[in-house]
Backbone:
């Protein structure tokens, strides 16, 4: 078996070298050496030990499970998403980390995606399947670090703002419409710390026009995000332990007040419950940090609520949904039990949570028969949350 050829790269935080790493052509991290004088700038997720550092690097690549990833890799000539990561200097629109070849003179100002033009070629292929724009003919740097399995594409608006376009699974547009529905819920609640999603049109297979959604980047050169999953790599957790309390401990240790932690989680848990969002995993919660001072700025705006409103439940099964027995990817498996973490039950205004379902008329799949059922289930959730606010512990009743 041929030996993998490795090159040396500096792991950079803007223009601060934090480690010297050996990385093979396929993106595998070998030996590395920390710059002790700048160890505070080491990614939080990689600070505990060598294994955590290697895991942080692996997690930086686009997931190979993203829809369309295999085709995109083949068309661009990459062996893996890890090799694409290296070729594009591990740049991201979520933070200020990147890798610099040891033998090249490059600066953050020259390469960062927040101020330099780019085309997200990988996203172009997964969203617009028949269109190929080879970024390497235009600019060297793509966006090869973006989490999540759904098709995504980063773009630059006329005013320079960066925004992400997301597609959907299958023929339905419901995931995108769910993001618009969630946006309306937060807007009606007069809650400020959420990501606004906007409906957009995009080309899908056979040159047809479909629906997607877009949101503007809440990160910049001055604000970067750290996921809850990365934060949890800084502490030891017990097997099958809920992540809620370990995450709370980490956030407080970093400077987030207990009141701010509780208020954010209370609101997010209750609105996710109403939306039946089953995908609030630890990469869908983040905090924000100043990359220069390393000061924690608070929680990132609530984002990624598309996997909600029973988007993956066939119509014929909607009648059999047991709303107090829904499973979710979050702190714990059972959705209704998440409400047991809530301190301020009145933080969500039930009356302002009554929403118009007309947005779902734009979907193509089963809309005439599916929408009334979605509305019925949502109203059951509203009634349940009302009972919860009156003092009923819903998780004690499996109905």
Residues:
């Amino acid at each position: 078996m041929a030996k993998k050829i490795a090159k040396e790269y500096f792991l950079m935080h803007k223009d601060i070298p934090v480690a010297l790493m050996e990385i093979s052509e396929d993106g595998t991290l070998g030996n590395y050496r920390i710059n002790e004088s700048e160890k505070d700038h080491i990614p939080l997720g990689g600070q505990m030990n060598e294994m955590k550092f290697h895991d942080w690097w692996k997690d930086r690549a686009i997931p190979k499970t993203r829809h369309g990833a295999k085709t995109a890799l083949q068309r661009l000539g990459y062996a893996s998403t890890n090799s694409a990561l290296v070729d594009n200097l591990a740049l991201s629109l979520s933070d200020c980390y990147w890798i610099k070849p040891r033998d090249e003179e490059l600066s953050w100002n020259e390469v960062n995606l927040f101020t330099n033009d780019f085309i997200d070629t990988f996203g172009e292929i997964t969203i617009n399947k028949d269109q190929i724009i080879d970024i390497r003919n235009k600019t060297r740097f793509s966006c090869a670090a973006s989490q999540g399995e759904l098709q995504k594409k980063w773009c630059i608006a006329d005013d320079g703002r960066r925004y992400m376009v997301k597609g959907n699974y299958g023929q339905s547009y419901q995931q995108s419409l769910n993001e618009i529905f969630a946006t309306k819920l937060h807007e009606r609640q007069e809650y400020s710390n959420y990501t606004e999603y906007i409906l957009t049109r995009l080309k899908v297979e056979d040159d047809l026009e479909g629906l997607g959604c877009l949101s503007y980047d809440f990160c910049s050169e001055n604000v970067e995000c750290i996921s809850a999953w990365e934060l949890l790599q800084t502490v030891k957790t017990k097997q099958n332990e809920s992540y809620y309390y370990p995450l709370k401990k980490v956030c407080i240790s970093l400077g987030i007040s207990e009141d701010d932690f509780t208020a954010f989680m209370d609101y997010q848990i209750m609105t996710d419950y109403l939306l039946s969002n089953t995908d609030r995993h630890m990469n869908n919660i983040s905090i924000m940090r100043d990359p220069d001072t390393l000061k924690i700025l608070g929680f990132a705006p609530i984002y990624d609520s598309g996997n909600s409103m029973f988007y993956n439940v066939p119509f014929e099964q909607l009648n059999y949904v047991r709303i107090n027995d829904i499973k979710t990817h979050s702190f714990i498996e059972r959705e209704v039990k998440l409400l047991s973490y809530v301190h301020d039950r009145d933080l969500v205004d039930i009356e302002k949570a009554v929403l118009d379902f007309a947005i779902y008329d734009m979907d193509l799949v089963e809309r005439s028969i599916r929408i009334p059922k979605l509305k019925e289930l949502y109203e059951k959730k509203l009634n349940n949350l009302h009972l919860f606010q009156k003092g009923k512990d819903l998780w004690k009743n499996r109905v």
Summary: The longest helix spans residues 367-389. Residues 129-149 have pLDDT under 50 and may be disordered.
